[in-house]
């Protein structure tokens, strides 16, 4: 590392025409061919906030390295110029090498190359804590929720919401849970107000706390890796629904949350995926559990649609390769 | 009708201990037995807002008429005293006869004996019209929605939302649609604000208009009858999804709503029950259609839970005889 | 209770022609008719080991009480003569009255009227404990299993194995678990010997301990009642699979069973019903979990067949009213 | 285009050994290898009536163009000799180039390269019109059917019956509909004669008209493209069942077809795919709708079998890659 | 039997107002009530060709016998007057008694009281034999088919086609098989002519012989009884598909039908119910098997619709209690 | 074959460092790449008892032959040194050529290259015969079983138990059937002893004979080939369940096994796959059939797990590419 080392910047901060040194992961490489039969590699480099896909032509100096050295999922230190062209954003690579131990000193962290939420995880966490603090009335329930958020904060700040289906990026758990919880507050308020005669009355506390905690077991189900997230052994053999209920039960014991309040909250976690074939051993049998299921599901599905539309940049419809397994309509604009 | 005829009152207006003349339908009659083996009939009379269930003992003067004359679903003119007892509300019958043509002159209308929404249908309709007027921006879309509400107002004021599963009472369509549309406004606002990068942007107009119109075809699918609602021939053979889309297409032609806006709105109606086995020939393929499905479904299911809990007055759990086909938990209070 | 009170005997101990005073429950009563059109009641009285079904004719002195006083599920103190006739065993009733508080002094216990296992529960429990003591090698695992059996012994001695499908009687849990565990020992020994190359080697300990504990959660899922067993709130909302895993985890914490041994044992409980639609959130993913599923299932199904054949006494086939939902073949003997 | 240009012929008209200039599309190209390890490309060129598959060896002058220039789905102008060899029909290519705008002057039309029905579309259309004219008795019904055939004749002459499953070629819609309608005439005649007591009597008119129109909505669902057919946006979002019913309703309005006759005909279109999971929102609820479903289905399935057997030229069984998803038996001849 | 005994006639031959002595079975008896609360029994008596349903009023001399003596499924000797009234056909009973052994001398046969085909079984059998004789070309195949029809003629003349779903009456097997075989001749002729290029060519012989024999195993699966048909032990445990294939194989051995012709014919029987859940262990894998499935299914379903419409005499729709499990539309006439 | 020809040895007998001449099949070849981008082929050669996978580097003298000459599924005569290395067992090839006709003289038999059971087929057969001889009491039943084993001995000695799912190797049928029959003896003994009151008593003979014969039809369903086993035409069109029952019926006729004993044994074969979607036209309707299903299934599934774990040598979990279609847990050792 000589004195002349350029400052490290972020790929996602580069402006049109700007050259910079940055860290980026190779996230895709496919062999392709022009209509005239000219072969090339199409590669994608990404950091947390930007993906750039561009061709490496056969006559490029990087052609051979691209074919036989670069590894998908590996992080590289690159010097390149970022250009917006008529064919989309591109990189003109000047230098490129796999990252090494020593790059840590320059601020390298593999997390920098993983896709991450558009939202700031710390702010999302603050927002979630603030919801728990202000909206939950039942004292033991509030303590349990806050305790779980605090205890697992380091993991939750990075956790994706799922391995693939939705919010599958760093900070995805928080982005999804905050959004679902905002749905929950609206639904709890509305149905509590509209149906005051329901006996027992709808528990606003349970709807909100249940939504915050419904996926807490993902902390033990998933483990972040360079190519996304993997299931832990316990995640595969037991699953986040049971693992999350364990976490709740341990915290409840500590803070004396018990009786029917605890039972109903456990049931919310157990039933939040609704059907046996969707992973829940019991269907939602309380109004609160039913609402939590929908507040979660609507947010997950919205993100699934969003991602499918983003990933296929052209055409009236996306392909069927998305978690819905059917084509999503983009249309030609309204 | 002599001068001495008592004024007709509503069963649901009677106070404890008050005697009155009123119209009510016999909605249930079951043969029962005390723990000591004493047999009796348990009958339920109802008007639009109140149901009273009480025993007719074997030694009652009405015992024989109850057994061999009274018909479930028939409306009666009754003179009786309403009493709240330790066994619940009861009626002491003084006179009872089936209603006759001439009772119309005294204000009798079979609708008075059907269960109806707790909300005022005219107010619900005003609320729905006001949402359409204020929230919809697209001029042709707004015209189409308002035109459909206006044209079918007389039917919509009485229509139930379904034959059995939820909101199955007079005014149920409006109660359900207003509530689902309020869900829709919240969801459209929230996801439009949170995901400004979605292309094309989420159409708030479509989410709201789609929710208002999703069940409009029920106007032609169901026909109100004394014992609830029946399917029309077109309702059974074609179904409200297709019939509702017809209504939309006819109105759209009149007000020049066309192109992709119309196509997306049709798709919302077509797909709002989500799965083929739930009745939709196509699944929701746009973010708007997906949101409308959930805004509708969450409201329908909440009401299903509410009804199941109301109908079984005792015990920790309801029975499995409800549209969910499993037991709903009431518990013993939080 | 005068001095002349006869000694109380057991219905199931009465010999042909013997009269006795005993306690028995009315377990069935149906209205029937001879081919000549003569009406009568067919009633069934039972104690733990014998059921007697016989007619109460219209001209019997008990006819009126049978129709309007006797309650199914109620226990009676009876004086009657037991006779084997060409129409099967019958009772000639001399006296009958509902049991009262004071009968306890004469040894009355409602449990005496519930169907129970042909095997002695205490001996079954001793057998199970002895299996755990002698067969399990892993010290913490053995302690955990013995601790759970001991802690819940009073409940386990009475517990049925299920509410309806199989072994649905007092002591059924033990009868089923002992039998399934004997299957487990055979299978573990056989497949361990036949496939020594399996890596890791088949854990005989896990197969045996897993079978003993697979249904331990029924202790908290079911509660014995006069008309069989009911689900507890936790049983319905959470289910015996999760409740049983809780019991295991608590015991494991106490006795330091941990790591992969604990994880595999938890997985056995979680997956023992194999498919999501059969109630297991995860399918068996280890050879041990797969074996436990079968050792359990084969015993449950054998008992289901046995019960179906016993309950329908005549004809080549049973009816379809059994948990298999199809007819079982009895044939006319081999 | 010099004077010396050879006359353009059809690939499908070439005799063994004849050389000609023709237009053909490259419909398949796979990399392959002889048992001795010699690599080659296997290419398929086709026009509307003939497919020829043959090798391009590595040492062929076309080897390089084949690898890097030829595009699947593209039309070429070729000069080649057609030869039947022991390895099947082959082409010896003399010249080949992608078609250009100017080829239109020589009669080039991409349709010439698409697979098409063995039957003449115009004759099929005449046959269908003649069936409608002669067999239909109900005057408005006849007008509606003839009007729809006439209005959409240009599209119907080319339309495939489906994108993939059966009759997926130019003229396939007509071939399938004429054949299904001949089934319909037979079935209507037979069951009308055999069951004269059916009330209302079987409507021969409805069975025939329903079969002619059952797939009319494909006109708006599919759009012909060089590589087969694609779904239109309305086809994907709404589907041919609903689109076809729209066409019927518009025509019915014009020709005063109404009441139960129209309702039953709409129902036939709506229900012709029978099950929800096969695409029909309502199952066939009239004898006529049931017959139309079968007349359609039997023809579609026969063609599916035929195509599967044709496409896999060798072996006792086809592969499972056909719409039945199982192997079809060819055998070795009877 | 005195000289004065009236001649025995058939219930189905009685004219309006005619009195006669006849045998009839009581096929239904339900307790009912007029709108005024007057109770009565509604009974149905039937012989092979006519069903008469009428009330037995409480003050009728037969009221007591009706309630306590008459047995559903029993045959009676009756003297009664047959009258067509505005409430439908009725019987004025003069005498009635259960049939006795001695009635056989007067021509009584329980078969006379069972529903039977409108067609003459002997003529149907002659028609089927004639089809086999004239249409089948393959000599061994023809011999096998004729041999099986001849051997089992006595059983086939009475056999129903199924226990409940369709043609569930005496002679139903023949009615169904003749009708399905006529479908088969049409389909075989049509598809053989239309697709001469199919390899191997469609075997008209196999389609026809396969349809004749597809249900031959019912001979051993069903056994006629007074209340319809019951499954034999082999019918329940093995099923008519396998039993019918046995019969074919035994006959084939005798007449030297072998090789692929036999294999394909066996496969037709094995696969004729198409899906595993509909009872076929293999799906139709030859064009012939596929055609036979449809020729059978269309006839069975047509009869199912016909029966559902006949059994529910009123209303726009039938109930859902028919083998389709949904409502069939009758409408109000075209 | 010169005098100097080395003795032919077995690949599976070679010790570390030993060179030998042997026959082996190429069972896999995949193109791969080191982390540094160096390309190579990974090939697998196998004989009946050993598989060796190793790289052929680009600079190896065999590189070109590997790429363009070697055929998967072909047998080769090789001279090579077998070495255990840190990367697993490897072969250093000195000579290699495809086997030729003349190699038969040196003892070559393609069977030598197919995977086979670890057990000696002749010993397995002796064991099975001995079980039949000693355990079966019913004389005709014993004769039938022994006759079938004897008649088909040559085929059974080689037959795999299935094409892919379990025991898919030479001798697999015998290995599986012997193991399942040992399960059967245990289960029959145990449930016969435990439930002496079952009527008719459990037939130990039927459980054992049924397990021995349950898959006997595989003899005609499968035919051994160099790349495993293929379905025969009868296997695909009729299936081993029906073919096996044919074999039983033919043998039963010869040895006078008949009546209910034969019917129950046929039913065991028919129902042994339990569910229609698993291939059985009838579910197990006798206790014996139910036991046979489980004795078979447990052995098949155990082997499936074993194979999945063996095939994926590394990692906590296998992949999902196994007949269970989910991941199997290996863990890191207990």
TrEMBL record, chains A, B, C, D, E, F:
<dbReference type="InterPro" id="IPR006674">
    <property type="entry name" value="HD_domain"/>
</dbReference>
<dbReference type="InterPro" id="IPR003607">
    <property type="entry name" value="HD/PDEase_dom"/>
</dbReference>
<protein>
    <submittedName>
        <fullName>Metal dependent phosphohydrolase</fullName>
    </submittedName>
</protein>
<dbReference type="InterPro" id="IPR050798">
    <property type="entry name" value="YhaM_exoribonuc/phosphodiest"/>
</dbReference>
<dbReference type="GO" id="GO:0016787">
    <property type="term" value="F:hydrolase activity"/>
</dbReference>
<dbReference type="GO" id="GO:0031125">
    <property type="term" value="P:rRNA 3'-end processing"/>
</dbReference>
<dbReference type="Pfam" id="PF01966">
    <property type="entry name" value="HD"/>
</dbReference>
<feature type="domain" description="HD/PDEase">
    <location>
        <begin position="169"/>
        <end position="310"/>
    </location>
</feature>
<keyword id="KW-0378">Hydrolase</keyword>
